[in-house]
Design brief:
By secondary structure, the protein is an alpha/beta fold. 41% of the residues lie in helices and 14% in strands. Helix 3 runs parallel beside helix 9 and helix 4 runs parallel beside helix 5. Bound molecules: pyridoxal-5'-phosphate (PLP). Pyridoxal-5'-phosphate (PLP) binds next to helix 4.
Amino acid sequence: MGTIYFDNNATTCTAKEVVDKMLPFFSDFYGNPSSTYNFGTQAASEVDKARSRVAGLLNSEKEEIIFTSCGSESDNTAIMSAVTGFPEKKHIIISSVEHPAIRNTVFFLEKNGYRISQLKVNEKGMFDTDELKKIITKETLIISLMWANNETGTIFPIKKASEIAHKHGVLFHTDAVQAIGKMPIDLKLFKDIDMLSLSGHKFHGPKGIGALFVREGIKFSALLHGGGQENNRRAGTENVPGIVGLGMAAQLTLKELKNDIKKISVLRDTLEKNIKENIQRIKINGSITNRLPNTLNISFKGIDGEALHDMLNAKGICVSTGSACHSGEGSPSHVLTAMGIDSKTAGSSIRFSLSRYNTIKEVETVTAQLQEVVLGLRKMSPFEF
Ligand code: PLP
């Protein structure tokens, strides 16, 4: 049996169209975009086209896009730009389910005198906007909330949260790394978002490239200092193949998004239905109503998620026991724990995340294999199920 890849929130395959677009920029058109001869300016012009394509996906202006190396760099840049720009404000608000790219950035700042508030979430992974209002103070510098959660797929009410931030004169950043390519995003309709992070490898672009949207007029300070690339906002010779690939991935996403959402949600819903019908004592984690179309996070009572993961792996099925970025740590997921899920239930959870390249046949195979493995593991258990 070949590989069945159901871990698209960890990373996605690079679309063939993207690879084809990138290849000549390694071998034939390898000029430095900063060079002033034609061989360089041609590369600069391709970078510019890619910037327009990324802006097109977000419905933003191309000048509002800064290319970075990944989602983590975009997140770090957003937070550190706020810190540098407004040193008098020392309070930062995040949610308790943010990705480590945000968590560990603000925890670093906490060691350096900043006060961090983590907005609580309920059992669906959702926060209360009234709670958000209550924890804002005159000291609050920035609110950073993810658009969609990487582990559960729960979608946050970003429009409302960003409006609250601006009503209180606070900057608003969203980590949209998991939202891009899975839901439409129109930044002309979300005028209170000041900064937004995205990452190429989460929507069929290459690894090693990301972008930060910074709305026109927002005070910005670079994280990387050096040459004047990216209009003095991010130093370092541009990753031209990566940027061109990101541009192509953005263009493809814009074209395919409607169909992708339709197709992928049918696959995910079929997987969910199959599991519900064939496997007892399961619990779906996260919101059912406000959820990414590709994500399904399930706890299997009495099962060790790691064992389940390993047995599926042996059958060529790739899933995650939490966020791939910190799998292997052994401790229960901070996301599920923040939702009030006990450590046993959290430890029995598996995340399935699908893409446009998955098929209904794969869904059927995974259901059958999963049923066999879960029943087998439960039979071996000393407990009754
Ligand atoms: N933010 C979220 C919500 C993510 O899921 C991830 C990666 O899993 C990141 C940020 C980090 O992105 P990157 O891997 O491009 O650094």
